[in-house]
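Bug #77: duplicate submission created two jobs. Keeping one. Sequence:
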Amino acid sequence: MKSINWLGLVAALVVGQIIGIVWYGAVLSDAWMAAMEMTEAEFVGTEWRMSLGFVNMVIILIGLDWLIGRLDARSWMGGARVALAACVFFALTVVSLDYVYAAGNLPLLWIDGGYQLLTYVIGGALLGGLRLKPKAG
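Kept job's structure:
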């Protein structure tokens, strides 16, 4: 736990939550609700799921931070590249499984996949580039 980039992780977590609020709230709320086949009334009372999303994002960011460190990609672009690769090869393939096997709908795939891509790349950039300066000894 000592090697975790806590500054980058907290920044990526905050930015990721803001992106989620804007992405699923202000920008794509109607499209997402239609793709989920839900009304606003049906969504009331399920806000607790957002806390699970928060925990999920913490786990993802810890994994990305570990991967960025293992690949020695400790820069803004290095972190973004590693996160992009992780997103394309892992997150987007998992998101697409619902579409492939469970007859999920294509709009939801694009909405959720776009969110994943954006949060991974920005989170990776923050994890790779935003670091505390080492203490002068």
